[in-house]
Amino acid sequence: MAVPKSRVLHRSLRETPPKAIGGDGVWLISEDGRRILDGSGGAAVSCLGHQHPRVVDALARQASKLAYAHTSFFSSEPAEALAELLVGDEPGGLAYAYLVSGGSEAIEASIKLARQYFIERGEPRRQRFIARRQSYHGNTLGALAAGGNAWRREPYAPLLPSAFSHVTPAFAYHEKHDGETDGDFVARLATELDGEFQRLGADTVAAFIAEPVIGATAGCVAAPEGYFRAVREICNRNGALLILDEVMCGMGRTGTTHAWEQEGVAPDIQAIAKGLGGGYQPIGAMLASGAIIATIADGSGAFLHGHTYLAHPLACAAALEVQRIIAEEHLLDRVRDLGRHLERRLTERFGNHRHVGDIRGRGLFQAIELVADRATRAPFDPALKLNQTIKAAAFEAGLACYPGGGTVDGRRGDHVMLAPPYISTADDIDMMVERLGSAVDSALRSISH
Ligand SMILES: Cc1ncc(COP(=O)(O)O)c(C=O)c1O
Questions:
Q1: Predicted pLDDT of residue 150
Q2: Which of 206, 211, 360, 403 could form a disulfide with 391 if both were Cys (CB 3.0 to 4.6 A apart)?
Q3: What does the pLDDT look like over 118-143, one tens digit per residue?
Q4: What is the average pLDDT score of the chain?
């Protein structure tokens, strides 16, 4: 009987990963003393790299004052300061922050807030949500139901609520027809989305939910120009809310604090997480518009939701310091500059590669998609597990990157994402691309045997 060696239930029950025992800027240090270049901040989390002295100090200061006080009795200094920093100037009309422990919790809260808002507005029929195929919104059951990734949903399908339906994602590389312009593609997607509202009954839909730049399930896919403006208009016309999931692509990752700033729209509700706390503490947040919160304040007066670790003081202190550093050190300018550098280097290394069909992304959020045939965009046989082979080869070469499978339809396709820390140097970026290049070539050699 093959029983796992470790008592920790790891992601794989067959292998125990090496222990990480330290961090140093863009480097992770494993128990055998190896230094691994962190090219993806885990899953686009570690935006300031590891062991940033200011964040470590802020955590120690808060831990020495107060680690925890339940939110049904108290607020805390770091929670108030963090919310002020995030929504004090009401970006896009977002005026309140609900501080949770991660991305899935932020999505669950977003879905529930949308539903409660419509009950309190006297529109209880609005109980449907439209999302997109190939999206990822988290692994708790509500978030998983919102997500459109076939592989992740399949085993749990019987448990998922039927309130969610899915339309075509704005994923030009696979979904745009030959000969179709970006404008035609956007128009076709808009017609499909509006059609879905009408099919369900427009007055039954609470919200449309989407990632402005699709992350883990498709690999850094930004929408064509005009798509989110069309989506915003359709939501408005049908009286529904727009929920944007910026858990992975937000908090500066694409070069602006919010990815939606580059789309000319703002959401009614937004989920953020990873780059919010940079991995120094588990933290996420739901940001909500002033209008939504005013409706509930005038109605029942309470959001019918909650968790034990809401607005955890240590988590808020870490996120507050991370966000202050990003602002004070003008790190988003750096994300934009380094993002262009990363894109250039990826294009030099993979632009003519016979098995790299697409290089895409924004800011320090870039991916390559692997294809068996560039002309037809046909993916490799998923049984070859190419993306996992690349991950192993990269790790061997001293690079942590973030590969994914099922890029095309949840089952077929391979991509690799890079999401370097904002504190990286151009040399670090060069090293990431070089190591990724060797890993891709060695993985392709090994699967062709
Ligand atoms: C877009 C998106 N939404 C939600 C989540 C879920 O976040 P968490 O894993 O913190 O629960 C993720 C995680 O990868 C994500 O990328």
A1: 85
A2: 403
A3: 999 999 999 999 999 999 999 999 99
A4: 97
Q: Which of 209, 273, 266, 214 is nearest to 243 (CA)?
A: 209
Q: What integer pLDDT is reported at residue 237 of this predicted model?
A: 98
Provide the b/e sequence for 84-118 (b: ≥16 CB within 10 Å): eebbeeebbebbbbbbbbbbbbbbbbbbebbbbbb
Q: Would you state the pLDDT for residue 362?
A: 98
Cα-based distances in Å from 101 to 88, 112, 313: 21, 16, 11
Q: Whose CA is nearest to atom 16 of ligand 1?
A: 248
The string of pLDDT tens digits covering residues 203-212 is 999 999 999 9
Tell me the pLDDT band of 3, cut-offs 50, 70 and 90.
confident
Kindly report the protein residue whose alpha carbon is nearest to atom 5 of ligand 1: 138
Which residues have C-beta atoms less than 6 Å from ligand 1?
Answer: 43, 102-104, 107, 136-138, 211, 215-216, 245, 247-248, 273, 284
Q: What values do phi and psi take at 307, rounded to 5?
A: -140, 160
Distance 96 CA to ligand 1 centre (A): 21
Phi, psi (deg, nearest 5) at residue 72: -80, -10
If you measure from the C-alpha of residue 107 to the centroid of ligand 1, how many angstroms do you get, rounded to a whole number? 8
